[in-house]
């Protein structure tokens, strides 16, 4: 009888293990602790992002998010976005710039002098000293174009009245990451005397407020390389997705469908419905493998803005 009891215990144990395996069937286990819920993966997939390697990430400013495509942070409120909302700018044959929400920058001329809106990026004081040179170089790349905003690079401690739009902070996850612009809707009800009340909903779009960078993973003194990373993450903050987001074979070597299966490598077969993109006049029809918004980068690689990058930035933010 005792053997039988042991057997039954073992059997019960096996059933329990099987049951827990089945429960985990539809979830990706990242390590022993972190699990991304299935409904979150479905939402990420519906937005057109790969669900391969999604990792929960803690931010300083915006709570918990999910790291997708290596360096994009999606927060729970991003997961409800309409997937087809945005601007698509096609370049070459293989890539396109895509933006979800684009912040509006207000450049003004006053007494004949042009004042551009400043996008102030502040570096956490704990980051390596040479990062300020890299951030300044990234700023110079944006500021060399005639855009309606001007990037200002500062150490956090040098800020005037603590004003900043984006803070660069250290992390130990990934290489670097950032999120997409913050969309806020405010409803204002005004009741002018004798005219009844009016309710107006106003949408404001501001740059995402944080870039995370991992000095251990960057592991470099190459100013151009770090400038490239910071310019890329700033691109996400103002709404750019990856140029090669529907064909990451270009920079990453392999691409997966959002559900995790590898693509065939044939664009027409894999993505038959990639219509609706705005073609940027004057861009070449061949490949452009150097865009600053490509998803993957080699160590110490430098990617200053290509002609196409400049065209896209000017198209969206030119004066
Ligand atoms: Zn990126």
Notable traits:
single chain, 319 residues, alpha/beta, Collagenase (Catalytic Domain), 8-stranded mixed β-sheet, 3-stranded mixed β-sheet, 17 strands, globular, binds zinc ion
What does this structure look like?
With 319 residues, the chain is of the alpha/beta class. It has one domain (32-82, 92-317): Collagenase (Catalytic Domain), CATH 3.40.390.10. Helix content is 26%, strand content 25%. It contains 8 helices and 17 strands. The chain has helices at 2-24, 38-46, 131-143, 215-218, 223-237, 249-252, 267-270, 307-317, and strands spanning 28-29, 35-36, 55-58, 64-68, 72-74, 87-91, 95-99, 108-110, 113-115, 117-123, 149-155, 166-170, 176-179, 182-190, 198-206, 210-213, 278-279. An 8-stranded mixed beta sheet has the order 3-4-5-13-16-12-10-11. It is globular and about 65 Å long. The termini are far apart. The protein binds zinc ion (ZN). Zinc ion binds at residues 71-72, 232, 236, 242, 295.
Distance between the termini: 87 Å
Biggest pleated sheet: 8 strands, mixed
CATH domain topology: Collagenase (Catalytic Domain)
- Overall pLDDT, averaged? 80
Radius of gyration: 23 Å
- The ordered H/E elements are HEEHEEEEEEEEHEEEEEEHHHHEH
The CATH architecture category equals 3-Layer(aba) Sandwich
Question: Topology of this protein?
Answer:
Layout: H1 2-24, E1 28-29, E2 35-36, H2 38-46, E3 55-58, E4 64-68, E5 72-74, E6 87-91, E7 95-99, E8 108-110, E9 113-115, E10 117-123, H3 131-143, E11 149-155, E12 166-170, E13 176-179, E14 182-190, E15 198-206, E16 210-213, H4 215-218, H5 223-237, H6 249-252, H7 267-270, E17 278-279, H8 307-317
Parallel strand pairs: 5-13, 6-17, 10-11, 10-12, 12-16
Antiparallel strand pairs: 1-2, 3-4, 4-5, 6-7, 8-9, 13-16, 14-15
């Amino acid at each position: 009888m005792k053997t039988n009891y042991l057997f039954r215990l073992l059997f019960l144990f096996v059933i329990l293990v099987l049951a827990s395996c089945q429960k985990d069937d539809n979830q990706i286990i990242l390590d022993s602790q972190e699990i991304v819920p299935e409904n979150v993966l479905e939402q990420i997939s519906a937005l057109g992002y790969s669900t391969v390697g999604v990792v929960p990430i803690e931010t300083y400013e915006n709570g918990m998010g999910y790291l997708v495509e290596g360096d994009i942070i999606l927060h729970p409120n991003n997961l409800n976005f309409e997937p087809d909302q945005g601007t698509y700018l096609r370049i070459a044959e293989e890539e396109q710039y895509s933006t979800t929400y684009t912040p509006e920058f207000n450049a003004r001329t006053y007494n004949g002098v042009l004042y551009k809106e400043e996008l102030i990026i502040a570096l956490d004081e704990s980051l390596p000293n040479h990062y300020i040179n890299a951030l300044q170089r990234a700023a110079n790349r944006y500021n060399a174009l005639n855009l309606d905003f001007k990037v200002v690079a500062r150490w956090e401690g040098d800020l005037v009245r603590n004003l900043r739009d984006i803070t660069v902070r250290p992390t130990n996850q990934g290489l670097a990451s950032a999120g997409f612009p913050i969309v806020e809707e405010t409803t204002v009800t005004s009741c002018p005397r004798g005219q009844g009340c009016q309710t107006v909903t106003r949408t404001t779009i501001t740059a995402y407020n944080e870039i995370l960078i991992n000095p251990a993973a960057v592991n470099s003194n190459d100013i151009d390389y770090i400038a490239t990373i910071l310019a890329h993450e700033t691109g996400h903050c103002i709404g750019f997705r990856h140029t090669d987001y529907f064909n990451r074979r270009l920079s990453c070597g392999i691409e997966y469908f959002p559900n995790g299966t590898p693509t065939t490598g044939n664009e027409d077969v894999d993505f038959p419905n990639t219509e609706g993109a705005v073609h940027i006049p004057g861009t070449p029809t061949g490949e452009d493998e150097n865009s600053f918004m490509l998803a993957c980068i080699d160590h110490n690689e430098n990617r200053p803005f290509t002609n196409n990058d400049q065209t896209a930035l000017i198209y969206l933010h030119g004066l």
